[in-house]
Amino acid sequence: MNASHKVVYTVFSLVLLLGSATFQKQVRSEGVGESSDQATEPAGGKMEEAKHAVGKKTKQVEEYVDDAAITAKIKAGILKDPALKVLEIGVTTTNGVVELSGVVGSQKNIDKAKKIARKVKGVKSVESTLVIRPPQ
């Protein structure tokens, strides 16, 4: 089981646990004389809310995992290029949008870093705040 599956499983388990606790509390507060249908109606709504919440959290986890994979692939590409220094270039990815930051030796290096980022599957756009190091 990989990390994203573990996170999704954990979130799902917590939602089910909270839904179950809420259901039990509502059943106890509804009273003994009511029918089981009346007692379970609120729980059905809570379960639908829980399913929606799990779906939303699952999507967020998947996006986070995708963004982390994109960042890692870009960093690996930068590392492979002898002209670029991976420690000089920061890479962050949010919802497929890549931000390159840092200080590099030339405009050519900025262009190379952008090109590497654009080639990675899942990248929607590349933004750069990379600047050229002044000559010493």
Indicate the mean pLDDT: 76
* Distance from first to last alpha carbon: 51 Å
Main sheet record: 4 strands, mixed
Q: Could you tell me the number of beta strands? A: 4
What's the Cα radius of gyration? Answer: 24 Å
In CATH, the topology is named Histidine-containing Protein, Chain: A
Q: What does this protein look like?
A:
The protein has 136 residues and is α/β, with parallel strands linked by helices. The chain has one domain (3-132): Histidine-containing Protein, Chain: A. The protein has helices at residues 3-30, 36-80, 107-119, and strands at 89-94, 97-104, 125-128, 131-132. Strands 1, 2, 3 and 4 form a 4-stranded mixed beta sheet that branches. The longest helix has 45 residues, at 36-80. The model has no long low-confidence stretch (mean pLDDT 76).
Question: What secondary-structure arrangement, pairings included, does this model have?
Answer:
Elements lengths: L2 H28 L5 H45 L8 E6 L2 E8 L2 H13 L5 E4 L2 E2 L4
Parallel strand pairs: 2-3, 2-4
Antiparallel strand pairs: 1-2
Helix pairs in contact: 1-2, 2-3
Short summary:
Helix content is 63%, strand content 15%. It is of the alpha/beta class and 136 residues long.
Name its key features.
Histidine-containing Protein, Chain: A, single chain, four-stranded mixed sheet, 136 residues, alpha/beta, 15% strand, 3 helices
